């Protein structure tokens, strides 16, 4: 019986694999060939789904895919190399994306200039190696071997008429190389800031963007004058230049002004007399007599207070008989 059942199952599998391409549906499904979408609104067979869920869902999927393929091959086709391709129509439904549409990378300053001027570079088709006429061998355009090749080529440097004979030309070359590298790095950071719409401070004189009002410019000039070590005492000023209003009181370095030093003995004596008069006058409350007298009275009361009925326990002077005392020390 097992052999017969296996033969019957194999025949059923062959019949399933050779099913007809015609599929019957009670309600015709909606098909959007532009997005390859098929929506089936027919009711499911609940009994079949509960008894054999896997086989039922596989059959349902197979029928819907067959319908979609039938509609695709009803479209006009063309041959591309060795394949036959169907021309899909415009989509009817707009399907949502799972992720955000990637933004195009902004062009750098050089790329934008090359695009405006029509300059084309073939970096993709260019090989990494380049023939060096002086060394007579293939050398890379960049990297470790490139720097070694430059050391072999520039092992002797001629000192020109404009150069200083006492100056080392190799150090000058390395310094200029570092300057170029730092310039390229600065330009790269500027390109990143430009792509993210970040405004950078300009080098040189301030523009209207930084100081739209004239009062802001005068405030900046005043703060710059007072930011020196001498608080602007030896700073040169323009003719008819005045400090900004209300800014000197806000500066932390100018909130407390130092008192003037007396120039002679007479001024010093007057200053000391004024200090003594302010101390001895009734206006200055240096010592609060009421609070001082109340505190002394409280202290006297505390010292005169006695505790009746309480005596300090006397010690045993180090002698203790463990056989006579039982139960430990008495607690009070």
Note the topology.
Layout: H1 2-17, E1 30-32, E2 37-39, H2 46-51, H3 53-72, E3 77-80, E4 83-86, H4 109-117, E5 129-132, E6 137-140, H5 144-153, H6 169-195, H7 214-226, H8 265-280, H9 289-304
Antiparallel strand pairs: 1-2, 3-4, 5-6
Feature tags:
two-stranded antiparallel sheet; 9 helices; two-stranded antiparallel ribbon; mainly alpha; 40% helix
How would you describe what is shown here?
This protein has 332 residues and is mainly alpha-helical. The protein is 40% helix and 7% strand. The protein has a two-stranded antiparallel sheet with strand order 1-2. The radius of gyration is 49 Å and the shape is extended. The protein starts with a helix and ends in a 28-residue tail after the last helix. Mean pLDDT is 76; it is low at 301-305.
Average pLDDT, all residues: 76
Q: Tell me the total number of β-strands.
A: 6
Task: Give the helix proportion (percent range).
Answer: 40-55%
Main sheet, how many strands, which sense, barrel? 2 strands, antiparallel
Based on secondary structure, the structural category is mainly alpha
Reading side by side through the largest sheet, how are the strands ordered?
1-2
Order of helices and strands: HEEHHEEHEEHHHHH
What is the distance, rounded to the nearest whole angstrom, between the alpha carbons of the first and last residues?
A: 102 Å
Uncertain segments are 301-305
In DSSP terms, counting alpha (H) and pi (I) runs of 4 or more, how many helices? Answer: 9
User: What is the C-alpha radius of gyration, as a whole number of Å?
Assistant: 49 Å
Strand content: 5-15%
Shape: extended
């Amino acid at each position: 019986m097992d052999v017969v059942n296996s033969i019957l199952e194999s025949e059923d599998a062959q019949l399933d694999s050779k099913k007809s391409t015609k599929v019957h549906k009670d309600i015709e499904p909606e098909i959007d060939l532009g997005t390859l979408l098929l929506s089936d609104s027919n009711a499911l067979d609940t009994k079949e789904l509960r008894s054999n869920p896997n086989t039922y869902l596989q059959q349902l999927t197979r029928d819907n895919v067959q319908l979609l393929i039938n509609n695709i091959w009803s479209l006009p086709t063309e041959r591309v190399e060795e394949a036959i391709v169907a021309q899909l129509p415009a989509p009817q439904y707009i399907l949502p994306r799972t992720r955000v549409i990637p933004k195009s990378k902004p062009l750098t300053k050089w790329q934008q200039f090359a695009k405006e001027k029509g300059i084309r570079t073939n970096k993709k088709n260019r090989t990494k190696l380049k023939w060096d006429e002086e060394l007579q061998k293939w050398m890379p355009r960049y990297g470790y071997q490139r720097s070694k090749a430059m050391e072999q080529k520039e092992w002797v440097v001629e000192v020109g008429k404009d150069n200083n004979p006492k100056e080392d030309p190799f150090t000058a070359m390395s310094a200029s190389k570092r300057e170029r590298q730092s310039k390229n790095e600065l330009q790269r950071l500027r390109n990143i800031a430009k792509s993210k719409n970040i405004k950078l401070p300009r080098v040189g004189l301030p523009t209207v963007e930084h100081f739209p009002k004239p009062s802001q410019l005068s405030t900046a000039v005043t703060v710059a004058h007072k930011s020196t070590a001498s608080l602007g005492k030896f700073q040169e000023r323009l003719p008819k230049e005045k400090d900004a209003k209300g800014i000197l009181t806000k500066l932390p370095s100018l909130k407390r002004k130092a008192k003037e030093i007396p120039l002679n003995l007479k001024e010093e004596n007057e200053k000391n007399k004024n200090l003594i008069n302010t101390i001895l006058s009734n206006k200055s409350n240096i010592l609060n007599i009421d609070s001082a007298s109340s505190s002394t009275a409280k202290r006297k009361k505390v010292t005169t207070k006695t505790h009746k009925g309480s005596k300090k326990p006397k010690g045993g002077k180090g002698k203790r008989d463990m056989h006579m005392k039982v139960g430990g020390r008495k607690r009070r």
